Amino acid sequence: MFGWLSWQWIHQWSSPQKFYRVSLIWARILGVLGVCGLLVAWVWGLAFAPEDYLQGNSYRIIFVHVPSASASMAVYLSMAIMAVVSLVWRIKLADMVARQCITIGMSLTALALVSGAIWGKPTWGTYWVWDARLTSMLIQFFLFVGLWAIHNAIDDKKLADKAAAIVVLVGVVNLPIIKYSVEWWNTLHQPATIRITRETTMSMEMLIPLLLSMAATYLCVATLVIYRTRLEILYRERKTRWVQDELNGWEKA
């Protein structure tokens, strides 16, 4: 009985109308926490964290590069989960969330590539090398571009959602390559800075603002996904009675 109630609860909260009704307050809370967290993390990391004994001040871009790279992979993984939910259980909210993750993930991946190139110049002496980590991250960027192109090329929303979901699931194999490429191959890219299985060599004065920046970036990404999904819901459900009532309420206000 508990399992049936749980499944009923999932279906209830996966309704576009229900999501739209309750998501605004969460978006506002997450947005405030995310922006405040980023401001604290960036000021702390860029102004007060000590210099690195090898890289000097050039390492400070880590407070932008690592969170953006990590968040871009999390966005893609979230899209893969939404793809499974859409294809197996036909929950249309999953398609809406996945659709709005695309440009966010594309932007985060681009930021990770650009910030990594800026970091690579003083560290490696060049902006780009065909390193396994860099190449797999570039592939992720092209996957996002391809998904964006699918949605813009196919007018039928259901067909576009299904095609994009299949591409997402095919491309998800790239995530472990990005993650473990520095361990599987001899690469220029340094190993992961933070690992659960072993103690980090980074000082706490650097580690705390980095972790704060990562957490705040995730909160900001969640906020953007919620806001963009709300707009997607209004667009796709624009012919329904509840959306018409919502828009009429805006006009009266």
Automatic annotation (TrEMBL):
One of its GO terms (cellular component) is plasma membrane. GO terms for biological process: cytochrome complex assembly. It comes from the Bacteria. The chain crosses the membrane at residues 25-49, 69-89, 101-120, 132-151, 163-182, 206-227. It is found in: Cell inner membrane; Membrane. Residues 37-189 form the Cytochrome c assembly protein domain. GO terms for molecular function: heme binding; heme transmembrane transporter activity. It is a multi-pass membrane protein. Keywords: Cell inner membrane, Cell membrane, Cytochrome c-type biogenesis, Membrane, Transmembrane, Transmembrane helix, Transport. Belongs to the CcmC/CycZ/HelC family. Required for the export of heme to the periplasm for the biogenesis of c-type cytochromes. PANTHER family: CYTOCHROME B_B6 PROTEIN-RELATED, HEME EXPORTER PROTEIN C. This is Heme exporter protein C.
